[in-house]
Amino acid sequence: MRTLVRDLLKATSPSDTVQAAGWVRTRRDSKAFSFLEINDGSCLGSLQIIADAGIPGSEDLAKMSTGASISVEGKLVPSQGGGQAFEVQATSIRLLGAAPDDFPLQKKGHSPEFLRSIAHLRPRTNLYGAMFRVRSRMSQAVHRFFAERSFYYVHTPIITSSDAEGAGEMFRVTTLDPSQAGAKSYADDFFNKAAHLTVSGQLEGETFACALGNIYTFGPTFRAENSNTSRHAAEFWMIEPEMAFCDLQGDMDLAEEMVKYLVKEALEHQDGDLSIFEKFVDKTLRERLEFVVSNPFERVSYTEAVEILLKSGKTFEYPVEYGLNLQSEHERWLTEEYFKKPTTVFNYPKEIKPFYMRLNDDDKTVTAMDLLVPGIGEIVGGSQREERLDVLLANMDRHGLSREDYSWYIDTRKYGSVPHAGFGMGFERMLMFVTGMTNIRDVIPFARTPGHCEF
Known about the structure:
- The protein is 28% helix and 24% strand.
- By secondary structure, the chain is an alpha+beta fold.
- It has 2 domains: 5-97, CATH 2.40.50.140; 122-442, 2-Layer Sandwich (BirA Bifunctional Protein, domain 2), CATH 3.30.930.10.
- The protein has an 8-stranded mixed β-sheet with strand order 6-9-10-15-14-13-12-11, sandwiched between helices. It has a 5-stranded mixed beta barrel with strand order 1-2-3-5-4.
């Protein structure tokens, strides 16, 4: 049974028999022996192997070039060189898979743009190996966060007939021949109605919150939005809790608590992976994350935020005006230059928010909130949901939504309605925040963006 490189690098004493395997990072030869560094993806570090000439398998040493995969048996012994406490003195070595000279990940620097073009190989690099180990650990932390608070995990549909955001930027799912689709009705289609990839599991999640109390969803969502920016992707993962008997205050509390929890996870439990982001991506990363964990977040109403922006004297690319959505540049200025900390903005004008958000008593704003973080902007968006049947119906009519299509959703207000609230956290944006990576394409294994659907 092989031992992970991670565990061998953590060893505190020698061992007479170990088995290891991995991909060759480098090989240096002399007449009597060869030095090989291997990495198996379990950690950032590499394990040094000393392979003497003449041991079983040494006849293939010349083929064990960068990128090749090998397995090793030997003794774990104190290292004679610097950089590691122990190394493996091989008693046998085996070539598992050769890598020809055209292996693209030679030992040199590569640009993010180039590595995106070989996304099937980039996890073998130090930076992206660390990135996707962090992603895995953070995914587990999401589930642990909710389990510790007695939330139930609900799987909501990927294919849906409901547009939760009311924006219409959805991918259609159909079995009709595209050349004949216009001539045929939805009755001829697979689901007998218009169907799309989901933009959110929120509406379905609300129905379960109104039965189980506190639930969350965590899965892929899809937006057919032609936004070729560093923060947008056509496919991304969303974390969406819904809480029965909860108001906007409780919603903001949970969102802020979750951000702190995940940041703390990144700081404490990544087996050294965070160090590579500190070194090559953002030298202030750890300091910034520690500040987030140890300080309260700011809260400000949308109206106050607009007033602050208008009085800033700063010229923005997009205009600042009451009744318009805040743009990323506005959000980042608030968090990076004015408050200098994560900030929750709440109570937005009803005209710029979806139909399901609860109308405030002023009849002008809704109980919406966005949690903004430095370097990214919005990372969480949520609201208290409109639980009053008559007000919800009026909102749907104002947005031009069919009551028949949403009859199942209306039933949650018709039968035992309760105050409830929830939010959506963009998982990739959270990963960008905790690693310092500036492009969403670099925190998701295979990015789907306008014009790009490779691999």
